Amino acid sequence: MPIHLPPISRRQFLARSLTASAGLLLSPNLFAASRKVDENTWALFSDTHVAADPAHIARTVNMTANLKAVAKEVIDLPKRPAAVLISGDLAFNHGEKGDYENFTSLLAPLRKAQMPVHLALGNHDHRATFWDAVKHEKTITRPVVDREVAILRSPRANWFVLDSLDKTLSTPGLLGETQLAWLGKSLDGNADKPAIVVVHHNPDRGQNKGSLLDSKALLEIVRARKQVKALIFGHTHHWGIQQDESGIHMINLPPTAYPFDSTSPNGWVLAKLEKDGLGLELRALDKAHKEHGRVVDLKWRA
Ligand SMILES: [Fe+2]
Fold it and tell me: Distance from the CA of 172 to the center of ligand 1, in angstroms?
């Protein structure tokens, strides 16, 4: 089952446009598709919480409008990012079919602009319902049978996307022994480049019990492998970056939906891989937010 939604080809798009209206030949999406790609830049989203009803509002936020807005910001960048990665909690609350229908329709403009979209699942997703919603997409073989894991290779780093969805609507996450074993083996087999691990749940470093239940095992695996430079997650709806004692950067993405703390920003992060690190720029939805536009340059541990 796919967790990668590939770009919609220009030919497919052209055919759709011609059917709809000749005027659409001048669609901004076609201009977007012809932009140069920056193969080292990635657009990172998390916690989109899209509901079936596009008008649905939670905690004063219209999640559909927010995902639409962040997608447009990515499409409007002067250079096209290599990919978009969304680190889970795609659906509003318990992963309904309609949530995923609306969610995937909101990703179409990014895909038409020739960006692949890579997805992770969170505790508000439902794996079987998600798979059913995307069953018409091209399927790929999953390396871990009952979970959505992937290795995404890019020129300056390999991205390891994990699946920490344990039980829908149960707050903590769990990777499980099979997935952890796959991660260790896959990291060992791909040690030639810096590795970035992406997972929905935040690792528990003593702060709360609603995080990743097998954090200790995950941290042991990544800390011992020096090619792992960063761990990226969502779940807390709180933007933040820390470096742990082993030098791994812990990057907590903001939600595109609602922050739990009203002072935290919502939005997305533009990530640029350098030879020796990662540049992150927060793009808050509220352009007046003090964090909006802040750039952080992370250096990789030795
Ligand atoms: Fe969430």
Answer: 11
4 token code pair: 């990668």
**Tens digit of each residue's pLDDT (9 = 90 or more) over 38-95:** 999 999 999 999 999 999 999 999 999 999 999 999 999 999 999 999 999 999 999 9
Beta strand pairing call for 37-45 and 80-87: parallel
Q: Distance from the CA of 165 to the center of ligand 1, in angstroms?
A: 12
Q: What percent of the chain has pLDDT over 70?
A: 88
Q: Which domain holds residue 79?
A: 4-299
Type of residue found at 291: E
Q: How close is the Cα of 302 to the center of ligand 1, in Å?
A: 33
Separation of CA 10 and ligand 1 centre (Å):
33
Q: How many A from CA of 175 to the centre of ligand 1?
A: 17
Gyration radius of the chain over CA positions: 18
Domain holding 43: CATH number? 3.60.21.10
Cβ atoms 106, 75 nearer than 8 A: no
Q: Which two tokens stand for residue 197?
A: 């691990």
**CA 123 to centroid of ligand 1, rounded, Å:** 8
Instruction: Determine the residue type at 216.
Output: K
